[in-house]
UniProtKB/TrEMBL annotation:
Pfam families: PHP. This is Polymerase/histidinol phosphatase N-terminal domain-containing protein. Coiled coil: none annotated. Residues 5-78 form the Polymerase/histidinol phosphatase N-terminal domain. One of its GO terms (molecular function) is 5'-3' RNA exonuclease activity. Gene3D superfamilies: 1.10.150.650, Metal-dependent hydrolases.
Length: 316
């Protein structure tokens, strides 16, 4: 089954493998009506180069019969994995947002260099300079990343390539579950992310709620259940929750099916948030040979559902 609207997708601007233009073309070929670009900790592209001129990327998508939704996925909470807040309908050129982008870049660069050093000390050598910043693309060309462009996924891919884990997904789990390896970069709090989204005129949506651990333990000994954690976000002004999501192809630790989670989320939060969204969290992983990649429109919402919540997601 493919949904008409996929509201959670990534490009090469964060940890995906499609360019924004490729994502739009691939979404059209997949039969989608609406697709969103929601890269991690960076503003979405507002323009594309076509015929030597800059064109509004939403108009570019419209040429392919698609409505493009622009978003920003905030990685939140230094001490809790996979707390992500999606900001839609924001002023993506706001100085407030640019300040957060720069802060997130610095925190990532420092933490990812440290992770490579710790992996090396534990018998899994990874050279940050020559294997992460300097890399070989799919066509055999040597390229260089700016430290600000490094994503944890780049490190996981090298771990898999060198045989430290069977796949990058299993490398992620290996790092996540080892306290020595799980280097904590300083992340924005989810409450501050919600405030920032609203200060920039946007709406805040909690992505993949069931990727948050069922019981959260903070370094100071505090414990919170997932439900208590999400309740706090709702009380703080969370606008929506991503209900329809590809848990079966992620590091989700539970045993519930994607459909069961969608039903539970909608039952629990109906009337408590303004709307529900859905998305595949597409990264074009098939380009890296992932055996069971997420594909566009695998999860999402119908066109009718999108039209009902369109004003929450799309700016003028």
């Amino acid at each position: 089954m493919r949904y008409d609207c996929d509201l959670h997708c990534h490009t090469v601007r964060s940890d995906g493998y499609d360019t924004p233009e490729e994502l739009i073309i691939n979404a059209k070929e997949a039969g989608l009506k609406v697709v969103a670009i929601t890269d991690h900790d960076i503003q979405p592209p507002l323009y594309v180069e076509t015929d030597g001129e800059k064109l509004d990327i939403r108009l570019y998508a419209k040429k392919y019969g698609l409505e493009l939704v622009l978003g920003y996925e905030f990685s939140c909470d230094t001490y809790v994995d996979d707390v992500h807040i999606l900001g839609y309908k924001m002023d993506f050129e706001s100085p407030l947002l640019q300040e957060e982008v720069e802060r997130a870049k610095r925190s990532k660069s420092d933490a990812y260099r440290e992770l490579c050093e710790i992996l090396t000390s534990k018998g899994m050598p990874i050279d940050y300079e020559n294997e992460i910043l300097r890399y070989t693309d799919e066509e055999g060309n040597v390229r260089y990343r700016d430290p600000d462009e490094v994503q944890r996924k780049h490190i996981f891919e090298v771990m898999a390539k060198k045989g430290y884990a069977p796949t990058w997904q299993e490398a992620k789990i290996l790092v996540r579950d080892d306290p020595e390896l799980n280097v904590r970069r300083k992340k924005i709090s989810p409450f501050d992310a919600i405030d920032l989204i609203k200060a920039c005129g946007g709406t805040a949506v909690l992505a993949h709620p069931f990727l948050i651990d069922e019981v959260i333990t903070y370094p100071d000994g505090r414990n919170l259940t997932r439900k208590e954690y999400i309740d706090r976000l709702v009380k703080h002004g969370l606008d929506g929750i991503e209900a329809c999501y590809t848990y079966s192809k992620t590091s989700y630790k539970g045993s519930l099916s994607d459909d069961e989670i969608e039903r539970i989320v909608k039952e629990e939060y109906k009337g408590r948030v303004k709307f529900f969204t859905g998305g595949s969290d597409y990264h074009a992983d098939h380009k890296k040979g992932v055996e069971n990649p997420r594909y566009l429109g695998e999860r999402g919402i119908s066109l009718r559902e999108f039209e009902e919540i369109r004003d929450y997601l799309v700016g003028e």
